[in-house]
Amino acid sequence: MSYPIDTLRMFCLLAEKLSFTEAAEALNVSQPTLSRKISQLEQSVKLRLFHRGGNQIHLTPQGIVFLESCQRILQDLDDTLDGLHDTTEMIRGDITIGLLHPMARWLSPVFFREFCDRHPEIRIHLVTLHPASLREMAACDIMISPLLPVDHSLVAKPLMQYRRIFCAAPEYLSRMGTPQHPSELEFHHCITNTNAPKKENTWFYENHLGESGTVSVDGIISSDSVDIAINLAVSGMGVALVPSKQIVQQKTENQLVELFDGEFCQCGQMYAVYRSRKYQPMRFHVFMEELRAFLTNEPYPPLPTIET
């Protein structure tokens, strides 16, 4: 009894999507083709793997057990192939990176270009994510996230510490006044929800002397995007709390002013999140190490020695 690898991958993807339409689109096959492959698989294993009812499907109890076995088999196969490829003369293969759009924009002009120049046999696929999806592992190999995942089976490797700073446009400050302490932000228009997994009602602040606290915040507009929050702040619509490295140009051109003379901020950690596996492909390791070096302004590490 044989089970084609491509059919097992189709089954796993359909079990994830629970939609023939979405799975067929992701697999770039027709829906009838996918349906026929799954039916052939069910006939081969002599089990009903999916309950079908109208436009909805879900796994049967037998399908859940079969899915776990398929995932182990495919992961072992992928690990084996990755290990074989890593013993060749050049690191090669695909890496799907999930990250927020502002981070992708910030990394694109330099880091991704340099990485692809250094590793021409590695293909990078970028998937932009919504802040609300960062607590779960997205459909990617490595997720760059400022949040720790809720799934403890995932690995979260620290990449760098970063600062989110309070800033506003000179026009806004001349109109509304310049706050002297974060506690005064309660009386200002604040651009909330930036990169937050849920609605923000308070902002945390701290300084290097150990002073910290929270302040209630509200405003006339909010955004879940750093890029949009920066644009809104530049237009004078309120105070933004954004990563310091994202507004270097706006500060240089006096479009935005850092509040409190830079004394107060939010400190955070950026992580590379990935699934735990017996063998980590060399290309994943190289990508994360070079990204960490770039983010911390360190020289790129030497390329690993590959067995031949």
TrEMBL record:
GO terms for biological process: DNA-templated transcription. InterPro entries: ArsR-like_HTH, LysR-type_TF_proteobact-type, LysR_HTH_N, LysR_subst-bd, WH-like_DNA-bd_sf, WH_DNA-bd_sf. Residues 5-60 form the HTH lysR-type domain. Pfam families: HTH_1 (PF00126), LysR_substrate (PF03466). One of its GO terms (molecular function) is sequence-specific DNA binding. It comes from the Bacteria. Keywords: DNA-binding, Transcription, Transcription regulation. PANTHER family: HTH-TYPE TRANSCRIPTIONAL ACTIVATOR TTDR-RELATED, HTH-TYPE TRANSCRIPTIONAL REGULATOR. Belongs to the LysR transcriptional regulatory family. This is LysR family transcriptional regulator. It comes from Vibrio agarilyticus.
